[in-house]
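Work Package 3 (structural annotation) set out to generate three-dimensional models for the target panel prioritized at the project kickoff. During this period the team completed the workflow that converts sequence records into discrete structure tokens, so that structures can be stored uniformly alongside our sequence database. As a representative example, we reproduce one entry of 344 residues exactly as it appears in the project archive.
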Amino acid sequence: MKFIFKTSVFLLLTAIFFQSCTDEQEVEDTEDTQTISIELTEKIITTATSLNDYNFFVTNAAKTNCNLLSITSGYFNNPEGDYYSFVFTNTDVFTNTETLDMWLTRYNNAKQEAFNATGVTFSDEDFFISYISNPTGFSGLSKRESMLDYFENCEFGFGDTTEYGLAFSDIPDNCNINTGNITVFIYDDISIPSASVYDFTTTSLFLVEDLLANYNLQNNTNYGLENLKIYGFQYATPNGEELSLYTTKDLKNYFENCMLSRDASENDCLNFSYPLEIKRINLQLDETVTIENNEDLLAAFTTQGDELEFMYPINLIDLDGNMIEINTNNALDAILDDSYNYCQ
């Protein structure tokens, strides 16, 4: 009887031991490879595609043989809504030549001027280009596609067309403006800028519907809110700067959260270190793929029907070149959520 009892105890302990080893192995396997969720995929794609204006300009200017255009108009705008605009120009009256070193000197001077004027320390992540131009009077380049064309062939053409105004239907209900008059245009066709039939001003967006109803009553018309576009209004930034918002880009920015600010979740503060490996699984295959750059990463994560797993560990790089080792999906998710703080 004692022998049977001892044997039973021995077998039980042995089973527990092997189960423990199996569990540990499963944990290790889970940490090495984990299927990536849709939510984490979106953050990975944002990280791989985000390139701030400073890095965009400097990276491409360093590769070109063109003289840089000598006028840069831009602004600093952080997630807290602090704002400072500037224009810097090559002041050499004998030449319009602008090298990257000259541009960087003017840029750093503008950043110091911004601090002196506002008391806010802006980062390169907070920098935005409004346009680059030269003294000949053409309208300037404001879109990245146009700047890339210039960097490639050193020709600037006629410049870009800036879009103005915002459809009233694109304005959220929870955002109002209480800083002065707002200009509202009525259109037969809102997609045709020259098709406006009337404009009026108001001190509040909440009054627009009543003003439109009065216009329809007096003129026997039947225009709806879908026929309206708003244009410029005055806006005071948290640091006290008075701005006129009238471009479509600035108006969309303001109405995202009722202030002119930068989305902290879209930043260039962390980047993936390459090469790295991804396990790709679908109905036809189960393979490990080596990813060499952002383009490879985007191609992998935009392929339909694949389940993807990082082969951990992988590394992220911050702006100072420091490597951050990541070993699990949870750790990657947490650090991408906190990526903006790596720009501070």
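The two ends are 71 Å apart (CA to CA).
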